[in-house]
Design goal:
The complex is a heterodimer of chains A (217) and B (243). Chain A is mostly helical and 217 residues long. Chain A has helices spanning 6-45, 49-64, 67-77, 87-113, 116-124, 129-159, 171-182, 185-216. The termini of chain A are far apart. With 243 residues, chain B is α/β, with parallel strands linked by helices. Classes of the chains: A mainly alpha (217), B alpha/beta (243).
Chain lengths: 217, 243
């Protein structure tokens, strides 16, 4: 057995840059994905049939197809129709659309898990549907949604490694490039695993604290 | 005497099941009407139709002489009609005080200082000033229901609807809620109360309405209703309640 982690040491700056790119795409995708997810959830609970169907279609298609295929369609497929975007845009957009579908289901479930008596109580006090939704239902729905949302955030961060396949030099691709020149597969891949674990651990700690603070209420 | 609520031949169905089969009922200003009846008789639905938590399929509903229909501003209507639910339905993410000031501030745009002042007076009335910073899950069922009453009163409604307000309470907590309701009655509030508390009905009601299978079977003063019921169904119900 000859393991040599000194290779990693010399490549650390490049790896950290890769980790930075991973964080960048993940956070951007999460941000956009939350907005898409919120819109999707609003569509799903809407009494408007068209909106409802759009929300259903979104979730159905995205959940029913692999992320890799979705990214390939965006980056390699769309140029054939004259729609070209950078690998970064395609990666972030694909990851965001994918995340949004799951977030939409999480938020919908959260909203529907709030007791119907809450809406009735709010409306019987003269609050409009919109006001009842934002003041009374949403805060409770968000609290219910936090654990599954954290789960989804972690999934998105890990899924960002698939974006390496549309040529974004994020953490995984950075590692692979190092392997091409050093042939140190084990050392590099285990280091990647540790970096992913560290990033996600930070995520989890923040999430736990957020959850605890909300539970105190 | 001004009519607060008028229901004329009101019909309500859930799917193929007709729950209200032509309800005619008038409640005057200051009147206390207690609605009793077996479970599934439609008595709660009567209340829920009045503030339009349920739509009606046929018939006419008027509040203070104005017809309530699809053109009615429901938010404005509901500010005049307080409702208390069987399951309290307090907002769990808000303290007692925040529960009470929420609607006055959000719906009536009352400033916080004024809203808090009114709320504290109401919490004093229901005996919960010391619980103003507590969250609902820290309160007993009876306390929660008293907060719910204060919350409804904070909108200064013209009538209060009580939908089985003591049915979800432990027996020893029923009294404190009924006491608050009695003091409200003494203040002259118009009230419609769906309840199984026949003692309360006898003491407080101006009129008892007995509903069974979606129709009003019998209505009358408490004395006449309890001591000399006219309808067989009423007699059967009262004997089952072992009054």
């Amino acid at each position: 057995m000859n393991l040599d982690y000194s290779v990693i040491y010399s490549k650390l700056p490049i790896l950290l840059h890769g980790a930075f790119v991973t964080l960048q795409i993940s956070l951007l995708a999460l941000l956009i994905g939350m907005v898409l997810g919120l819109a999707g959830a609003m569509c799903r609970i809407s009494s408007n049939r068209v909106l409802n169907f759009i929300g259903f279609l979104y979730v159905w298609i995205i959940r029913g197809t692999p992320l890799m295929v979705q990214l390939f369609i965006l980056y390699f497929g769309l140029p054939q129709l004259g729609i070209k975007m950078s690998s970064m845009s395609a990666g972030v957009l694909g990851l965001a659309i994918n995340t949004g579908a799951y977030v939409s289901e999480i938020l919908r479930a959260g909203i529907q898990a709030v007791d119907t008596g809450q809406m009735e109580a709010a409306q019987s006090l003269g609050m409009s549907y919109r006001k009842a939704m934002t003041r009374i239902i949403a805060p409770q729905a968000i609290k219910i949604s936090i654990p599954p949302l954290v789960n989804q955030f972690i999934m998105t961060l890990k899924n960002s490694s698939i974006a390496s396949l549309v040529t974004i030099t994020e953490l995984l691709r950075t590692g692979e490039q190092i392997i091409y020149t050093t042939f140190r597969s084990f050392e590099v891949y285990t280091t990647l695993a540790v970096i992913y674990l560290i990033i996600n651990s930070v995520f989890m700690v923040i999430a736990n604290q957020l959850e605890r603070r909300m539970a105190q209420k | 005497m001004k009519h607060m609520v008028e229901m004329e031949n009101v019909h309500k169905s859930f799917g193929s099941i007709e729950v209200l089969k032509g309800i005619n009922l008038v409640v005057d200003e200051g009147e206390k009407v207690v609605i009793i009846g077996p479970s599934g008789s439609g008595k709660s639905t009567v209340l829920r139709c009045i503030n339009r938590l349920e739509n009606i399929q046929a018939g006419t509903l008027r509040f203070e002489g104005m017809e309530v229909n699809n053109k009615t501003d429901l938010c404005a209507l509901r500010t005049n009609i307080g409702m208390v639910f069987q399951r309290f339905n307090l907002f769990p993410h808000k303290t007692t005080l925040e529960n009470v000031i929420e609607a006055p501030m959000q719906v009536k745009n009352m400033d916080r200082q004024q809203a808090v002042k009114t709320a504290m007076q109401l919490l004093e009335k229901v005996g919960l000033v010391d619980k103003c910073d507590a969250y609902p899950h820290k309160l007993s069922g009876g306390q929660q229901q008293r907060v719910a009453i204060a919350r409804a009163l904070a909108m200064n409604p013209k009538i209060m609807l009580f939908d089985e307000p003591t049915s979800a309470l432990d027996p020893e907590l029923v009294g404190e809620v009924l006491a608050v309701m009695k003091s409200l009655a003494t203040d002259g509030m118009s009230m419609m109360v769906v309840t199984h508390e026949l003692g309360f009905a006898r003491e407080v009601a101006d009129r008892i309405v007995f509903i069974d299978q979606g129709v009003i079977v019998e209505t009358g003063s408490p004395q006449k209703f309890f001591e000399d019921p006219q309808q067989e169904r009423t007699k059967a119900f009262l004997s089952r309640m072992r009054y």
